[in-house]
Known about the structure:
Helix content of chain C: 10-25%
Order of helices and strands of chain B: EEEHEEE
Number of strands of chain C: 51
Radius of gyration of chain B: 14 Å
Oligomer: heterotrimer
Strand content of chain C: 25-35%
Largest sheet of chain C: 7 strands, mixed
Number of helices of chain B: 1
Radius of gyration of chain C: 38 Å
Shape of chain B: globular
CATH class of chain B: Alpha Beta
Shape of chain C: elongated
Helix content of chain B: under 10%
Largest sheet of chain B: 4 strands, antiparallel
CATH architecture of chain B: 2-Layer Sandwich
Largest interface: A-C, 121 and 119 residues
CATH class of the domain at 540-596 and 689-800 in chain C: Alpha Beta
Mean pLDDT of chain B: 96
Structural class of chain C: alpha+beta
Number of strands of chain B: 6
Mean pLDDT of chain C: 96
Structural class of chain B: mainly beta
Low-confidence stretches of chain C: none
CATH topology of chain B: Folate-binding fold
Strand content of chain B: 35-45%
CATH topology of the domain at 540-596 and 689-800 in chain C: Gyrase A, domain 2
Low-confidence stretches of chain B: none
CATH superfamily of chain B: Folate-binding superfamily
Amino acid sequence: MRYSAFSVFTQALRGHTGWKPAWRKAEPAPSYDVVIIGGGGGGLATAYYLAKNHPEVGRIAVLEKSWLGGGNIGRNTTIIRSNYMLPGNEPFYEFSMKLWEGLEQDLNYNAMVSQRGIYNIYHSDVQRDAYAKRGNAMILHGAGAQLLDRAQLRKEIPYLNYDNARFPVQGALVQRRGGTARHDAVAWGYARGADQRGVDIIENCEVTAILQENGKVTGVETTRGTIRAGKVAMAVAGASSLLAAKAGLRLPIESHVLQAFVTEGLKPLIDTVITFGAGHFYISQSDKGGLVFGGDIDGYNSYAQRGNLPVVEDVCEGGMALMPMIGRARLLRSWGGVMDMSMDGSPIIDKTPVENLLINAGWCYGGFKATPASGYCFAHLIARGEPHPVAAAYRLERFAEGKVIDEKGVGAQPNLH
Amino acid sequence: MRITCPHCGTRGVEEFTYTQDAERTRPRDGGAVPTKEWTDYVYLRDNLKGPRREYWYHGAGCHAWLVVERDVSTHEILSVTLP
Amino acid sequence: MTGYRLAQGGLVDRDQTVNFRFDGKHYAGLAGDTLASALLANGVKLFGRSFKYHRPRGVFTCGSEEPNALVELRVGAHREPNTRATMAEIFDGLEAASQNRGFSLKYDPLSVNNLLAPFLSAGFYYKTFMWPAGFWEKLYEPIIRRAAGLGRNAGVPDPDVYEKTTEFCDVLVVGGGADGVAAARQAAAQGSRVILCDENAPLAALELPENISLFTRTTVFGVYDGGTYGALERLTDHLPSSNAPRQRLIHIIAQRSVLATGATERPIAFGHNDLPGVMLSSAVDDYITRYGVTPGRNVLLYINNDDAAGLIPTLSDAGVNIAGVVDARPQGSDAVHAAARAASAPVYAGAAIIRAFGALGVKGAKIHLAKGGELTIPCDIIATSGGFNPNLALTSHFDGNPVWDASIAAFVPGKVPPGMSVVGKAAGQGINVNIVPCFHSGYFPGKSFLDQQNDVTVKDVKLAEREGFASVEHVKRYTTLGMATDQGKTANVNAIGVLAETLGRGIGETGTTRYRPPYVPVAIGAFAGAHTGKHFRPARLTPTHGWAEKQGAVFVETGPWLRAQYYPKPGEDWLAAAQREVNAVRNGVGICDVTTLGKIDIQGPDAAKFVECVYTNSWTNLAVGRVRYGLMLREDGMAMDDGTTARLGETHFVMTTTTANAGRVMQQLEFCAQVLWPELDVSLISVTDQWGQIAVAGPRSTAVLAKIVDAPFDLSDEAFPYMACGELSVCGGVPARLFRISFSGERAYELAVPARYAHALAEKLMEAGAEYDIAPYGTEALGIMRIEKGHAAGPELNGQTTAHDLGLHKLLSKKKDFIGRAMAARPALMDPRRPTLVGLRPVNPADIIRAGSHLLPIEAEAIAANDQGHVTSAARSPSLGSIALALLENGPARHGETIRVYDPLRGGDCQAIVTAPVHYDPEGSRLHA
């Protein structure tokens, strides 16, 4: 059923009894042409674009071990942006931004993509120049950017701590096209779109083994039986190493926990996305009124989906340092997501040494904004056997070759990215 | 989390820094050539669930490097020793 | 619903009147009242408007689980939105206001949403507002945002002060009820140190042994690893605003914990069950017994268990009429029948409330009788009890999921965090006697709410299920159930019940969503504590900071340090001052505090071998008394840091690092010494703070030093040439270390003295240099001179560059192992096309090159494909004008080429000549001038 104001109106008159499930509860078939492991943002977007752009691949299934969209797509701070610097990254994230800009009409699902702008605050001359370098790269890639000085910033965002800061607020790099989207709706919208195009979305179906014959993948063993597959595509950020191990692979990835927070609902207060440049803190306000904010990863390996107090305190200190008006806003909920922290802070979309096994992993804490392009490019790779041009740098071999994509310049220590 | 440093006693996690797992060994070949062994050492991790051996640095304390055996699924610390 | 203060009873102080205002109107309460109890005593029933439909709402509970009675407390910068009236203690002069409403609580134009409700079903916004695309940000979203949210943030800095402490104990007891006090006493009797936390204000003095520390108004909100608990103590929230700390975040480190958090009642849902006057039965009981206030005059009970029967004698003792007892159980129970008989109240066993009546408050209820037929009963309070839910959130902050215990129709703790035990009602003991599960009456005329704060109805949950959102997590996310400020404390279990029924599954099988900290909302200010404003992070000061202040220095934040940036003379801006300082150094002599550079003392028989492991170049052949420049890589082959290291003795080195990397280099060196090469006999210690170090630079530097160096130290070029070092004494016996090294490119020294002498040393040097017009110089002049000399610094050592990129590949020894050696040899890192360090000078001297500009071939289109590098550092040299360092593809081969310097962000677009990185004195002759 197509969603529209009209359909809501007619359904309302019928007591909303006519709505159909957003996606079917599919039963696993014995075999598929492509099996995508992971019913999160990456997996669902991949399924959607595979079915939409490459219908020739045949039958597609998405296997989700638990409930759909329950991983990092449902536990993030919902920011979308394409403010990257390096040539391996910026075309990809800008492509993703363009997909965001047409996403809702494409999916017929309101994911509340809101281009309310993202401000990266700078606090020193050196930081200003580093942001200028990045902003100029964004302009060269067609992503757009602006550099505001202190006076310009103060006019746009008057409530920052301009007068009593340990690290003075000097200005900001702004991407007006950046913003937020409703994270759960992205997963549900892709799921609905994929389902409508015939993809079987199978929840509560955990992959227990990856079946191989002569170095080739032939299918997967699951908690709901054996499923044969022509190609198996992994999109299980947060559990990539665990799944890869089932195929005998080790990855350039560590799993880290990233906490995020939301306050009680407040009337409109913060109309954009703001990141602190002298500490770990970023914030936006959801349409529902909660201040959504986060900071740094906890810094140690974890599969526990929860963090500890020191990071909560560090993040709130950053928030108070930047915008002391939020002191009386109360933190309502916290959550922790398990991040695929890669060795250079950039993702992997590639084939693997095992034939017909493909991988989409290593998104660090930046996977949400990448969701559309991640799915689009992974679908391209699955269907065509070669990388999409904007994702061509995201190869596994780049580490051995030295072609790392290290935006932060901190090297092979994932918790620093 | 609280880690019992063999030198300093039990301290909060905020005094320590995790850097990498302690399950790999730096190749002893003198490092003239970037072999697969080197790439694996620098870039690849097992990263599995359950108890793991990790290097933690007591930077806000005695500057000792510690080998912490820790269950990454539960955060339970099983042992802390010097390397 | 018209409440009033009973003639007697309650724990309030009837001799102490407290005056306060609500929505501008004056009221009087009693000491010990909450805002809710005081307003109820004054007959107030309307407290707020609901989130989505703006329906009138009253008080629903008597505790921290309150979903409805949220107010803005205090005024101005102290305004605190979304505060539970049920927890806010009143004080003289308190100002409170209702929130999320139109002109007044009674007349709210947005209550039109209630009429539109059929179109505002769960998740309706996912299905519409998509056309036209540009309208979302401009039209739909602003309307939605204005309508959403609850209270208003003050929008100005929080004026209050917050504290943090850490407390240690053997046993932490959470909950100061009878079970908690008993557990605390028992542990104390066994000799344990006990902390007892209770979230309420103290109502009566409690005699406790001295090894029990009692924290009242303290909520334990989270369980963390290693026996760490987060607690929030509300210090002055019950007092008029003052300078005293408002709240205190307590880290409690406990060996064991006992959870005695009791249980929270859940309602039974029915039509219009959100009208003011519908309350939890335990809340009605609490208002009477704790505050001596009855919320109404004529109470109808709607229950399914015997626990709630206790309200019947409470009401009749207080002289409040009981309109009847609607018991959802087919036969009722003996306990209820007996209590009702004693109170002469009718019992309607097996009946159900269809709906409540009333406009801004309950006027009556229509019930469906067991034998069929309907009955309308006038009442002003409906006290409902669907049983109790153990308060077990803290048990599942780790990985433990609550377990459904069908015998008491409640979730009870499953696996608990290590060291925790649960007692009393929180463990499901003694609750829900003779309960027959009932989450809703089965009748939903109008709206039947599950989550009152987020306006989620029974129909919404059923709709979510119909649309495929059948997992409990999906229902939560699709309907927003349980996501309001009360975290669904009175809503979740009912919703799970409705969902389970809809799915035809068991409740245990349906499961709960995961509980996460904090248990109650905690102010961001409390987590930040004193780390606000200038105190966000401590400032490290150099030992000459006070001296520099006296010279009128302007300071700049450099990582954690504050450094002198420049020393302006009257009328000088930063550039004029910095250029004058450069000239002073180049033509005479200047001094600069360089203490911030990391200094690591390395000693031991294997010290030289050790330094070889961490630097790329050779060190065993460095003579004692000499200094060498060193480059350090990360293990992945990228440049990490550089600096000079001096050999003070056969087994003694002093390494300097950049200011920014001091900590990381120390960490890496310790790793090498303790983990990678433990066989090397070497010891390290950071001496950054122990030695104050001052650069003395310029052609007159030797002459200045000669005046303060104690005899017989020989400063002649023969005895102490460029790159020499030595230990000596200065100023008549102050121990010192002298290094003849130069960052400025001039004849220069760095002189280190114990930090406590640095201030005096700066004065002595100024005195000694007076005849040469000695000038102090800051980081701006330092930066200009290092760019003139083409030295790499932070912007070049950015973690993305190799030794080759920086023109330092000759420093990579081929004869020994060092950190990063293997990975530095990867093909892509050796590629000559990589961006490599060059110098830039504008073709037109009037142009100014800015750092952060990108480099394009001249005449090439400004697109990413033509991007060939960027400007890393730029300076305004007093002698050379605009100069810059840049990383340019294939740089060394392009010296002399003209290139486009493109800076669209700041409107810059000029041409520059590519040069060698060293702009000034490429021969290095000034080192000896």
